[in-house]
Design brief:
By secondary structure, the protein is an alpha/beta fold. Strand 6 and strand 7 form a beta hairpin.
Length: 169
């Protein structure tokens, strides 16, 4: 029989962009100062209704409070450990943390990604983690460099077509 123990996940690189840090601080503020007081009020009102064992509002509210408290603890610890990276860590012509990179695939199509920390990656917004295989492969590369990546479908080759540290290219 397998127990519930799970080894702790590695937190990933401690780097974050200024925008990513602001987003985490906003989330922390919303959870602690806005949502938690509302849920606490709802739980108190539900508790006043008597029998708590079959009170869905009370049970859901307590569960949501545990989720909020857990996320708040995580955010506070993580924000203490993070290092905000303001600009490129080296030559601006190379791909470093925070860079917007333009990659050309084997078919000649261009893809634009931003290299960010593991706390803020979001593929739908074009943000890849510096800890991801592609993110690691790009770090330190110059424009026109070939980037080879082993994927489940086989080896993929990209060409680094552009690097910028300004807003989205």
């Amino acid at each position: 029989m397998m127990g519930r123990y799970r080894p702790p996940r590695s937190a990933g690189s401690p780097y974050i962009t200024p925008e990513g840090e602001a987003a985490l601080r906003t989330e922390l503020h919303e959870l602690w100062k806005v949502e938690r007081p509302e849920v606490t009020k709802a739980v108190s009102a539900a508790a006043a209704n008597g029998d708590r064992s079959e009170n869905g509002d009370y049970i859901y509210g307590k569960k949501r409070l545990r989720e909020i408290d857990s996320r708040v603890r995580f955010l506070r610890k993580r924000l203490d450990a993070l290092q905000v990276v303001e600009g490129p860590l080296g030559d601006r012509r190379k791909a470093w943390f925070g860079a917007w990179v333009t990659l050309e695939d084997e078919a000649g199509q261009e893809h634009v990604w931003r290299i960010v920390g593991p706390d803020e990656f979001d593929l739908s917004q074009g943000k890849i983690s510096c800890d991801s295989p592609l993110g690691r492969a790009l770090l330190g590369k110059e424009v026109d460099a070939e980037v080879r990546l082993e994927t489940p479908a086989g080896q993929t080759t990209w060409v680094l077509a552009g690097v910028t540290y300004d807003e989205t290219p």
